[in-house]
Design goal:
By secondary structure, the chain is an alpha/beta fold. The protein has 17 helices and 10 strands. The protein has helices at 5-14, 20-51, 60-107, 117-137, 139-157, 161-186, 189-209, 211-216, 220-284, 288-315, 372-379, 402-408, 423-428, 436-445, 449-453, 472-486, 502-514, and strands spanning 334-343, 346-356, 361-365, 387-392, 395-396, 409-412, 490-494, 520-525, 536-541, 544-545. Helix 17 links the parallel strand 7 and strand 8 (520-525). Helix 3 (60-107) runs parallel beside helix 10. The two termini are 44 Å apart. 36% of the residues are buried.
Length: 546
């Protein structure tokens, strides 16, 4: 969804509300600091007038004392303002990350299955980090520039209203007109740069994951060429943005010089030498806050593009809303009643019905694409049925608290994901307060305990990123161990032995059969041999049950 810069800015500013007190403090310190910096130059002019014999109302000693005080205050407040702004920025980045991860959790898994993982990583890291520019170097400086402009226009205008009007025109031109023109001339450069950056990140991640296949089939040069082309496009976008920023800087400096000259001639004509000196020095020394805004013209395009992508996640509606506030229930069987379901325009289940009695092992066999795995995801309420209903304990899953439903179920997928951590911690995510004895017992049930003990560090052995240090069968057995550790009454097993040889499959199935007491199991597989332990076996073909 493409939003205008103003809408993105409004939404991002809305997030500052919890830290508004710090923001006001930063603005006040910045305002006073910039006034001290500007009046250092002005009081230098006052000292010159004093030496030339003009009546300025202050002794030379008093002027120098003021200069020292202004310099000290400027230094202290500059540091304090920047510290305050960065405190706000990093606090807000932490808040945004928390909200983004909460949004991703709500969107999972339905809306994320088709998402570009590399692009998501780019949003979570690079795009959110880029918002630091907005919170630390945009909101506060914009407020400071507005207040500072008001004070300086009144100060310069006190000599003559025409000088005040000229100063106001100068500030508005440099701080508003130039940034707006620059922003419009930038077009979609920022959005294009962020999108291309996300695509490159996704391509790199995909290339790393597929490195063995790339080497095996000799496609390294082709992948490298594609990566170089994407990098070149990204470099062109960045060069275009920097060229616009450079042109903006040149225009800004030229416009400032023109206004300084105009102030010099107009004030000399209206106020004489002393008035011209003070008015010109005041204007020349006071462009700092508005120049900071002018320099943000091109940068903000990139920042708003990043903010737009972050807001897309924060504002995206989940396919399946989390259910709360319902009465907790215990598991006593499940069923599918005339269920229809499709991924987009592709029908998967049609008039699908199935009974799953308590304390039974129900087998579902069928070829790939017949809807077996989708049915398990519907039982988990990862997706919403489009017709019919899924019930657990006689209640529609749409009327069961999400946490209650997930506590009753253990879901073992075809590909077990292992985090870059120890085996023990990878198992413990199924039950954070699990004792060592419970972990060992779960691993014994999954026939993986002896394997873990054979490793150099046992249960403390680190698992490589994406579990690459383990075989598919070993990862699958750890997934089963997680399910046993979770100890839910309803186990959903999606091809739990697909990566195991016939001997290890037999061991796992025997363990499942022996540990079935108090459990209801749905066992999905394309192998008919896996169904030997099932009490009843259904065949799924083209989204129907037979």
């Amino acid at each position: 969804m493409k939003r205008g810069g103003l809408k993105v800015m409004t939404r991002l500013i809305g997030l500052v509300k919890p830290l508004s007190g710090y923001m006001v403090l930063a603005v006040l310190m910045g305002l006073v600091g910039h006034l001290c910096a500007a009046f250092l130059t002005v009081f230098g002019g006052v000292a010159v007038l004093n030496l030339l014999g003009f009546s300025v109302g202050l002794s030379l000693q008093a002027v120098f004392i003021c200069l020292v005080v202004f310099a000290l205050i400027r230094g202290v407040l500059r540091y304090a303002e920047q510290a305050c702004n960065h405190f706000i920025a990093f606090k807000l980045l932490a808040l945004i990350r928390d909200r983004v991860f909460d949004a991703l959790r709500r969107l999972t898994p339905a809306k994320l299955e088709g998402k570009d993982k590399g692009n998501l990583i780019n949003i979570i890291t690079s795009d959110i980090e880029l918002l630091e520019v907005f919170y630390a170097h945009t909101i506060s400086p914009a407020c400071i520039a507005a207040l500072f402009t008001l004070v300086m226009v009144l100060f310069i205008g006190a000599r003559h209203w025409a000088l005040g009007l000229l100063a106001l025109t100068a500030y508005v031109t440099v701080g508003i007109v130039i940034p707006v023109v620059t922003s419009k001339s930038s077009g979609d450069n920022g959005i294009r740069f962020r999108s291309n950056s996300g695509r490159l990140a996704s391509f790199v991640l995909d290339s790393l994951r597929g490195l063995p296949e790339t080497l095996q089939y000799g496609q390294g040069n082709q992948r490298m060429q594609q990566m170089n082309e994407m990098t070149d496009r990204l470099a062109e976008d960045e060069e275009r943005m920097k060229r616009i920023a450079g042109r903006n800087g040149a225009v800004t400096n030229t416009v400032i010089l023109c206004f300084d000259m105009a102030m010099l001639f107009l004030s000399a004509w209206l106020c004489g030498f002393d008035g011209a000196l003070i008015a010109t020095l005041a204007l020349m020394s006071s462009f700092g806050p508005v120049v900071a805004l002018a320099n943000l013209g091109a940068t903000l395009q990139n920042t708003f593009a990043a903010g737009n992508r972050v807001l897309d996640i924060l504002e995206e509606s989940p396919v399946v809303e989390e259910i709360t506030g319902q009465k907790e229930i215990a598991f006593s069987g499940a069923a599918a009643k005339h269920v229809d379901f499709a991924y987009g325009e592709t029908p998967i289940l049609s008039d699908f019905s199935l009974e799953i009695p308590e304390n039974k092992i129900v087998g579902i066999v069928g070829r790939s694409g017949s809807g077996k795995s989708t049915f398990l995801k519907l039982l988990m309420r990862f997706w919403q049925v489009q017709g019919g209903e899924i019930t657990v304990s006689g209640r529609n899953v749409n009327q069961i608290n999400t946490s209650n439903l997930r506590d009753m179920e253990s879901f073992v997928t075809q590909e077990t994901h292992l985090f870059h951590d120890s085996i023990r911690n990878n198992l413990r995510i199924a039950k954070l307060d699990a004792t060592e004895e419970e972990i060992v017992e779960a691993c014994k049930k999954a026939s993986v305990h002896e394997f873990i003990l054979s490793l150099p560090q046992g249960y403390d052995t680190p698992v490589g990123e994406l579990g690459d240090t383990l075989s598919g069968g070993e990862r699958q057995r750890l997934g089963l161990a997680r399910a046993f550790l979770h100890d839910a009454p309803f186990m959903l097993l999606d091809e739990p032995t697909s990566n195991l040889d016939s001997l290890n499959e037999a061991v796992i199935l025997k363990s499942l059969h022996q540990e079935r007491s108090g459990k209801t199991v749905v066992l999905v597989s394309h192998r008919k041999s896996t169904m030997g332990i099932a009490d009843v076996v259904y065949s799924a073909e083209q989204g129907r049950m037979s």
